[in-house]
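Reopening closed ticket. The problem is back. First fold of the pair:
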Amino acid sequence: MSRPGPLGAQPGPEREYLTADLPGAPQRALAELIAGNRRFVTGALRHPHQDAGRRAAVAAEQHPFAVIVGCSDSRLAAEIIFDRGLGDLFVVRTAGHTVGPEVLGSVEYAVAVLRTPLVVVLGHDSCGAVQAARDAVATGTVPPGHLSAVVDAVVPSLRRAQDAGVDELDRIVDIHIAQTVEAMLASSEALAAEVAAGRCAVVGMSYRLAAGEVRAVAAEPAELAGAVAPAA
């Protein structure tokens, strides 16, 4: 029987991908993400899994070790800021990391079918989607076209921030990230079941555009938030 190998190693007959069915998979997946982000911050990039050999290895099937539900902002490219490559991350991006049925279905596919052990909600400081929603609520205007759907999805987070007396944009973004984590778990029985069984974890992170580092905002299980700390 094959044994789990390090994520940086090329899978083969004696290697096994990191999936939800392996012991400690959520914790290992999170540690791998954080290690990659620290390499990105410090400039010690490895660019793993970005060559022709990896392309051939994952052509027939995929086994991503993390789902990234991130903001569509052009400065938030997950494979770059976590120093990963082909087949490593299952990325779903919307403005303001808003979550609808298609996003939840994509996450459930990764978690239930691909057996991915970690889901990350990735927001960032100075989020334009959150600011747009904030402006729309403040002025009572309805954004044109489908932008209104983005605003509507962020409004519950704005209300939560208002109830908490929070007015500063980046603190509102943090609340929105935590709200997204909670909403995903409340809306997806499949995701909640995997988390309850210990086969998956959901972590909310905020990315600092200038510094390039991530920090934890929320996590389920909660103790995993302590594993996400800025690079030294």
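Second fold of the pair, where the issue appears:
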Amino acid sequence: MLEGARIRLNGWQQAAVALGSEVGALLDPRRADLIAALGETTGKPAFESVLERMKNSPEGKAVLLERPRVVSAKVGHAWDLPANTFGAAYARFMGSRNFSPDDRPPVRFMETDELAYVVMRAREVHDFWHTLFDLPTNLIGESALKVIEFEQMHLPMCMMSVVGGTARFSQKQRKLFFQHYFPWAVRAGMQCTDLMCVFYEQHFHEDLDDVRRKWGIVPASAVPKILQS
């Protein structure tokens, strides 16, 4: 997934892939491969910045050295952890939705192995973030998480995804998102630790509430009744 399949693009080719991916993803938001291609072709400076931050963080540096992968063979033990732990919460999140950690698209358009790993890591920790912020995987939940991801990584693709997602909202969903989820997500993404510099797998055995406090994570609050009607 990190070696052998990557494609080198010149400037025009990169622009063409970015534009085609953006249009395709807007037409069909379920196309994870197009969203991934859009993120890679528009996000190189952002991923380079994330890489530098990881190099300057003790825990981030450990991630870069060990290059852990969030795949079934590596995280399957989370299903056997006590119910109160972060690992067990992640396992419940995945199991309740019949998700597999092995379903992430490969990295294709990054020039170096180091950057390719950072991109793959960002994809693979996405479900950890869903778990930690207690966000659903519906359109509103994914859009809120993209706001947090933008605050954390400054990826253009994240804001493009929010624009594309909110365009599909009903009037009720749009009101709920912009009055409740959006302001919370902006605050949550700004006040928590640098989430790309966390070695999540080493914290699976810790209490979920404890790791949230340690990383400054405030889960999404319940929707006010006035916005439920």
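Update: turned out to be a display glitch only; the data is intact. Residues 171-191 form the longest helix (21 residues). The chain has a mean pLDDT of 86. Please close again.
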